[in-house]
Amino acid sequence: MVIPTYNEASNIEWIVGRLRTAEPDGHVLVVDDGSPDGTGKIADELAAHDDHVQVLHRTEKAGLGAAYLHGFSVALERGFDVIGEMDADGSHQPEQLHRLREALADGADLVIGSRWVPGGSIVNWPKSRELLSRGGNLYARILLGMPVRDATAGYRLFRREVLEAIDLSSVQSAGYVFQTDLAHRTLRHGFRVVEVPIEFVERERGDSKMSGQVASESLRRITLWGLAERRAQLRRLVGRRSA
Prior knowledge:
The protein is an alpha/beta fold. The protein has helices at 12-22, 39-48, 64-77, 97-105, 127-144, 160-165, 177-188, 212-242, and strands at residues 2-5, 28-32, 53-57, 82-85, 110-114, 121-123, 156-159, 193-197, 199-201.
């Protein structure tokens, strides 16, 4: 499981401990973007006492997508067949990871822990944030033609074949839109995406990394991707009519 961190000193030992308890055979890769609060040092101490925990230290805060791409590449190099992602703040509960594993065992290629499918829920979110998330996901679903209700969710399991096929070297999205980007690429390559319901819990400690700038980047990129798809569809339609 790849866990990106930036200033998560109050959470990282807690969440890694819960994950190791929930999945004793699983491996954890913490990818720290040079946290000034000592997150990386705490992660190193965890790794020193547990051979199922490793740490990657990055020298700058380059965005969520960049951290995940680095973590994915290392996990692929080390030969893991299933590679996951989750937040470090406790919003994704390790005790629910078995739901994602069961869907993968049933034949999914990418499993998304979803807030917005039947049975999914959120805890301690203001109504404004819920509306923003639901609206953003609806926008992405319509514009990109994706049958995914929670494309922005970051609790996921991938088969290695998916990450190998979607050309991670070409992914440039850095912020939270990275999640939508990878779901879209997975579907375009013909892989099976399954959503399972989770209970998403708002962080209790530390500061959220969500901001207006992050939301604006997501909206801009999804709009550009959607327009590009519509142009491609139009060209194909014109090509068939002139053939």
